[in-house]
Structure formats: C-alpha cells, structure tokens
Amino acid sequence: MALTLNDIEKARDRISSYVIKTPLIRLQNLDSYLGCEVYIKAECMQTTGAFKLRGAMNKVLSLTEEELRHGIVAASSGNHGKALAYAAKMLGVKAAIVLPYTAAKVKVDTIRAWGAEIVQCDVSERFEVAERLCRERGAVLVPPYNDEEIMAGQGTAGLEIMEQCPGLDTVVVPVSGGGLIGGVSTAVKAVSPQTRVYGAEPAVLPRYTASLKAGRPVRVEPSGTVADALVSQIPGEICFPCVAANTDAIADVGEEYILKGMKLLLLEGKILCEPSSAIGIGAVLQGLLPIRSTDRVCFLISGGSVSLEQIARLERISI
Amino acid sequence: MALTLNDIEKARDRISSYVIKTPLIRLQNLDSYLGCEVYIKAECMQTTGAFKLRGAMNKVLSLTEEELRHGIVAASSGNHGKALAYAAKMLGVKAAIVLPYTAAKVKVDTIRAWGAEIVQCDVSERFEVAERLCRERGAVLVPPYNDEEIMAGQGTAGLEIMEQCPGLDTVVVPVSGGGLIGGVSTAVKAVSPQTRVYGAEPAVLPRYTASLKAGRPVRVEPSGTVADALVSQIPGEICFPCVAANTDAIADVGEEYILKGMKLLLLEGKILCEPSSAIGIGAVLQGLLPIRSTDRVCFLISGGSVSLEQIARLERISI
Prior knowledge:
Two copies of one chain form a homodimer.
Chain A: H1 5-15, E1 24-26, H2 31-34, E2 37-42, H3 52-61, H4 65-68, E3 72-75, H5 79-91, E4 95-100, H6 105-113, E5 117-121, H7 126-137, E6 140-141, H8 148-164, E7 170-174, H9 179-191, E8 196-202, H10 207-214, H11 239-246, E9 249-253, H12 255-267, H13 279-285, E10 296-301, H14 308-312
Parallel strand pairs in A: 2-10, 3-4, 3-6, 4-5, 7-8, 7-10, 8-9
Antiparallel strand pairs in A: 1-2
Helix pairs in contact in A: 1-3, 1-8, 3-5, 3-8, 5-6, 8-9, 9-11, 12-13
C-alpha cells in the first residue's frame, strides 16, 4: 500500500510536540550563484541536528508498549542513530545503535551522551549486525528509511515547506535510501502537483538513477563519499515506488560540487550544514538541474552535524 | 534634534529597494544554552554581509548630485567600508575607503573588488586621514555612525524586528560608536515601549558604560578585541543621547565569551557570524543580562564577514 497524504498528516499530529517546525529561510545572497530565487528548509536546525527525528519519532510512537519492552535497535550512518537515541531517551526506551566505523566522531559522541549502546562495524555489515542484535534480544529494528512510518515522518518536512512557502516552483532533496525524498515528494505532490521535486545523490553512489532506469531497486557498488549520510547502496523497496511516482528527476552530483555547495551555503548563505545536506546546491552549481531564473527553489538542508575540523578542510575548495 | 520614528520610516522607504529585509529566525536549539526563547535578526544575511548597508544607503541617497560629484570617503573598520563601496558602485559614485591595518583581509579584498580606492592606516588615525582626503578632493565624508541619516538607516532593522516578531520582550544589540543601537533602540521603543533593549560592548572597550555613568561621551583607552567591528573609543555625540534615552542597560562582555557566543551560534544554531555579532549571545552566556526563561529575546546578528581561518581558530574555545 503506497504512502498517502493522510499518513503524513497523521504523522505530523503524532510528532508535533517532539520536533521543531524548522524555519524556511529566504537566502537572497545565493540567488546570483544559483540562478534562481533561493530558499532553504533548515532541517539542520531540527532537534538532534537533522530531519531524521521526524521519522524516528513517528515510528517509535506507533509501536506498542509491549513491542518496546526489549528496546529498539537501529543501523545508521549517524543522524538516524542520533534521532533514535534521542527518541529512546525521551520516551524511556532502551536503544542500541549500530553504526559504521566511518561515521563522524561528533555524531558518535552525541549518541553515547544520550545513553544509547553503541555497536560499530563495517558499513556493509551494519544491517546484518542490527538484525542479529534484534534476534538475540527480542528488540525492535527501526530501519533508517525502508518503512512507511519512517517515510511518513520525514514527509512532514514536505508539508511544512508547502505551508511555509506556498507556490514554490521546485523542491530539491538529498537522496540516499529514499526515506526523505519518498515522504517529502509524496507530501509536496499531493498538496501542489505543479511543484517539481528533484533529488540529488552522490555520483559515486548512483543508486536511484540506476534503479529508475531499471524500473526496480538496483544495488550499486559501495563507495566512499564526502556525503557521509548518503551511503545507501540500494533504494528501499518501500521507498522506491514513492520516489518513482513523485520525483521529476534525480541528479548525480560530483564530490567536489557537494563541498562547493557546503562552502557557498556557509560563507555566502551564513548557514552551516553537513556535506550531504549541501548536495542539492551542488547539483545546481554543477548545472545538473533545469532551473529557471524566475523559479522559487527550496533546498532541503537535511542536517548540520559537522565539526570545525571538517569546516576548516573547505579551505582548499573554490566556490 | 533627536532621531524620531518618522526619520526611520522615511529611511525605510528610501532604501527598501536596495537592502534585504533579512530573516528573523527562531533558534529553538539555543533556548537551553541561553535560558530564554531565542530569536535572531540575521543581518549577517544582508547585502554586503552586514547591517551597515542600511545606514550607508540612506546617507548616500540623501546627498545631492552636486555633493556626490567629487566622490565619498569613509573611515571604517571594514563593514561600513564594504557598505559604502557597494553603495557607491550601485549609484555610480567614486569612493575612497580608509581602514585600519587590523581590518580582516576578507573585508579588504571585497572592498577592492567593488572598485573603491583603499587607504590603510593606524586605527587611531583613520578619521584624520579621511578628513584630510575630503579636504584635498572636495569629497563628502560619510561617517560610520555619528550621523542622523546613518542612524535612521540602521534603525530600519529595528522596525523590521518588531514587524516580524511583535511582542518581543527583549532585543540585544552589539555596540560600538552607537549608530546601530541608537537607531534600533529608537525604533523599538517607539513601536513597543515595553520591549527592553540591551547593548553589548567589549569589556576591553567600555565606552558606553563609562559614558552613561558620566552622562556624556567619554573616550576610553584603545584596545585590541576579537570583536574587530566594535573598536570605537568614544560614543558618537549624535548617537549618545539616543542610546541614553532608549537603552535599558549595556553589558561589557569578556573576549572569551564573545568567541563562545560565535561558536555556539555556529555549531548549535547553524548560523555563521563574525565575532562582533555574537557579543549579545556572549553577554547572556556570561550572565550579564537579566533574562527570564519565558522571555522572547531577539539577538541582532550584525554581520557575517568571517574567514574559514577565523572559524578554525574556534577549536580552542569551549562553549
């Protein structure tokens, strides 16, 4: 059964007292760089630093007390784990977070500080490890994206975007497994069918471009990327049909352009985000999206978990 | 004659097509750090990177063609110079900018790029040098703060704050010569007399605390400060009475707390500003302002001219 506007509206009611209605900000100083009227949805200002809390909260709040008795487990490249750890702490539930050795230290430290158990492994093994933990403990696995409640939660960001800035021409969304863009594109198209929704994924991990071409989820080779929150190798099978139905195009963005986007947003837009979140801006800088100068374009800035060290490394990047 | 709401409203009409109505942003993630409901007025997102364009544009637009014939001259620690250079470029007027050797390189480069002539000197000599240039050339000196048209222009930020977030309890404003807080406090008190207006100046340059105590502008010893846009040694004599009449208190903020404020705003608020602009947040972190947990407090974030190098140096600062 496909995700509907009604699911997303229910999620909004369920999570509203736990998440921030993040600001939608007009960034006029970026117009000349991106060739359009620039807006951002600042999910980097969300509690736990990323949109992930929306889906995580919606999922945990939809579980019964009995289901939550042995705790929850998540496999995550970082922000999903942070969101789950925070949700578990708030609701008094035990949580174990499985995350790859490559996860940013700032994310790992935060998860630990919220009292969750941390289990680290290779990025390719993280789902197996999480499943084994669930079997051993009777805990509930909360998937990072391939789940209707998760997608419905993420979709609430799309509802807010269209409420905060009705009549937007375009919304650009970072893409990994498809939880965020699946939810957001479903919400946006339901409310405003003429608004275009574009996705942006790392060119080194083109799982959506490959899958949309094939008409089914296709697994791509693993790869490192500066967008360390966008490392899924294959679209979620529950996410894929939502994305296929509601997305106008996917851009495959080069590593350099992702960092150019981050630096531009920081130094000219005055907004700090993690590399993954700047990928939509990178897509436009690289000339990959058909944007017109009169278009009102909203970039969903998905998260802001980034260290001063990572910021300092932008020195070598030219905008 | 004292500055009035009418002067500021006229300035708003005069400059509206040249300046950005910058966003007023709710930063919920800072509430627990600052002990209040946190808002910012993001003048770091203003054209030229700072509020200074408001006053500069209002001043230049109030001069006659004859007065502008031999160009304009400004003495500035950076942002005023940038604003003047930009205004001059837009209006086709010749500009010379006098600025101290200590001005941030990123500011100097930008001024040069906008086609203005640059004259560098010691910070204590900058007004003399500017006056000499005016005498030699017949050019018009545009003062950075001690001028009614300049103050009226800066005051438009105050009008916008109260329009964007009516009923604010408190507005906190960075203080140097008094142009910004003079204009903003006049606007805020005229529109909403019960809203408190606090100023924040570097403790190493306590020119307003000393002057308010003395009841007249008092010159303090020169000093270096991380707040390199707040280096005035004495209140402007035109600014002083406006500030005295409309400001509830001035906080003298320690250097370390200015940088703590900048780091907090960047890493937790996701907003990039220059050190000077974070001084109001620093004042609250240092416990210098009587803020209650239910107060809605807007920090005027005056500018965002900052380099990656300066950001990297925040590593040694603890929040």
